[in-house]
Design goal:
Elements lengths: L1 E6 L6 H10 L4 E3 H9 L6 H8 L4 E2 L2 E2 L1 H8 L3 H28 L4 E5 L13 E8 L2 H12 L3 H9 L13 E4 L4 H14 L1
Parallel strand pairs: 1-5, 1-6, 2-5, 6-7
Antiparallel strand pairs: 3-4
Helix pairs in contact: 1-8, 2-5, 6-7
Amino acid sequence: MKIYALTGGIAAGKSEASRRFEELGIPVIDSDRVAHETLEPGGAAEKEVIEDFGEEILTEGRIDREKLGAIVFADPAALKRLNALVHPAVGREVASRTAKLVDEAHEAVIIEAALHAEDGRLREGMAGLIVVHCPREERIRRLMASRGMTEEEALRRIEAQTPPETKLRLARWVIMNEGDIAHLHDQVDEIAKEL
């Protein structure tokens, strides 16, 4: 089985690309969703995150991701601490899910994550990188429209991530998502044929 990495900046359209790959029969492991699961009650990182960030991140006894996000996206050191707590648990779960797909004899799997190739290199074992790219101004507009963020909040989220342009040189495929959803799907369909 070949493992492919899918990435893109916030609001670039990687989740929609993932949905399309799944519709075409290629399994996708969403690392962001796995990360959210680690923060749920009983999740692998829940206790450590509460200990580090305090009970002010809780709503009705559960980690409130909006409260936590407001802290970490305003403070790079806090984001680094959160990542150090969550990423090892996510890595273990993604490895477990990938092994299950190998056992099920899938030919390809895609691991979706905003943080692929952060250090300028593709992780060992990855057969190729797919980058969903969208102009910054459009990403800001989407965050304001879909998530109700102010322009300042949207910019803070975008700037907390590695600029996606730095990953383009590593990409085997680039999906340009500045048009409509049909255009995005057409590009995914072509990549899926190759996979």
